[in-house]
């Protein structure tokens, strides 16, 4: 079944109110659930389903159990832009990181219902050395989906990308605009936030 359908099935088994859910349909099929005699912890299973989908599941700010599939974040509108000038929301400090922690030039995906799928960028490996991301015990049910996931992991993480590890915002400097952003009542884990490094932060 599709990942979103499995989420619905688990919700029903848990007795979670349907009105308090917001599930995407999903695009990856997951393996048939064959629980052991002692059962399968619901949380472990739903996290495994989200991983198989390359999606995310969480409790949103409105209290709903939410599942975003791998396509959800495509084309999302920007909820806020922070910059050091007065053109956008002002930040007071930023910690930038540019290291090799998230560099992977090979990825493997394996599970009970699939043949292990491996994708590697040999050009990157010749300059970086092998940097492997193994994903085991996947709930993916089709080799093609597993290979696609390995491919996306490598293409996303084969190069070092500068990232913002933390952003300091002092809302008292602009209470009317910054407090609503800091409290973030309209944000969830998939919210898109822009950071512009147009001048030195102050």
- How are strands sequenced across the largest beta sheet? 1-3-2
Structural class: alpha/beta
Distance between the termini: 52 Å
Number of helical elements: 5
Taking pLDDT < 50 over at least 5 consecutive residues as the criterion, the unreliable ranges are none
Helical content stands at 25-40%
Give the rounded overall mean pLDDT: 92
Using DSSP, what is the number of strands?
11
Radius of gyration: 20 Å
* Percent range for β-strand residues: 25-35%
Shape: flat
Biggest β-sheet: count, sense, barrel? 3 strands, mixed
- Please trace the helix and strand order, writing H or E for each element: HEHEEEEEEEHEHEHE
Structural write-up:
By secondary structure, the protein is an alpha/beta fold. The protein is 27% helix and 26% strand. It has helices at 3-14, 42-53, 122-128, 143-157, 175-183, and strands at 21-23, 56-59, 65-68, 78-83, 89-90, 93-97, 106-111, 114-120, 132-135, 163-168, 192-196. The strands form 4 sheets. It has a 3-stranded mixed sheet with strand order 1-3-2, covered by helices on one side. Strands 5-4-11 form a 3-stranded parallel sheet, covered by helices on one side. A hairpin with a 2-residue loop joins β7 (106-111) and β8 (114-120). The chain is flat.
């Amino acid at each position: 079944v599709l990942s979103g359908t499995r989420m619905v099935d688990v919700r029903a088994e848990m007795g979670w109110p349907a009105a308090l859910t917001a599930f995407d349909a999903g695009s990856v099929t997951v393996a048939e659930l064959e629980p052991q005699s002692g059962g399968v912890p619901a949380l472990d299973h739903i996290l495994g389903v989200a991983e198989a989908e390359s999606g995310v599941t969480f409790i949103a700010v409105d209290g709903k159990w939410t599942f975003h599939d791998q396509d959800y974040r495509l084309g999302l509108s920007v909820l806020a832009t922070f910059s050091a000038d007065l053109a956008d929301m002002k930040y007071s400090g930023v910690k930038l990181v540019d290291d090799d922690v998230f560099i992977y030039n090979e990825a493997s995906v394996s599970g009970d219902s699939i043949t292990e799928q491996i994708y590697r960028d040999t050009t990157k490996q010749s300059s970086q050395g092998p940097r492997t991301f193994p994903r085991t015990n996947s709930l993916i049910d089709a080799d093609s989906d597993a290979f696609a996931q390995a491919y996306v992991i490598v293409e996303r993480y084969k190069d070092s990308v500068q990232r913002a590890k933390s952003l300091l915002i002092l809302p008292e400097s602009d209470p009317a605009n910054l407090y609503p952003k800091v409290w973030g009542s309209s944000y969830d884990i998939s919210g898109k936030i822009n950071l512009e490094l147009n001048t030195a932060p102050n």
